[in-house]
Amino acid sequence: MSDAKRPCAECNNVAHCDMLERCIKNDPAPKTFDNYTRLSTPEGTHTEACPVCYADPEIWQYIAKPGEVAQKVVMCSHGDEIGPHDALAGGGCPLYMPPQSFYRPTIREAVKHWNEYAKALNKLRRDNGWQRARVLRNEA
Ligand SMILES: [Zn+2]
Questions:
Q1: How many of the other CB atoms lie within 10 Å of CB of 72?
Q2: Overall pTM surpassing 0.85 (yes/no)
Q3: What domain range is 22 assigned to?
Q4: pLDDT tier for residue 120 given thresholds of 50, 70 and 90
């Protein structure tokens, strides 16, 4: 009998226990590390609505690896598909997983970044809307 076929000494579950080098029945899968932990919004903290889809944002803590420094990030809460399904893009609002610049050392700084970005994007949309409308008016 080869080592690979040796049944688990604890539960006789051959393949899986040998493959993982632990007894599945008595030693279930180790708890995976959660990179993201949702935090409650501190009292008195204002977060702008998502400037892309207007959903409520959420505050999360991100830790890349166990023992590493925690970062805070404000993220859009809309994770459902918008429009055409694209498995590669992952779906959801573009700010559901915002870019690296949104990751900050403290909640206060993450909220500040989110709010400033939201206000800037809302202003940009208004300005561009105005430009677009003017072009249309001139062409008429
Ligand atoms: Zn959004």
A1: 20
A2: no
A3: 1-30
A4: very high
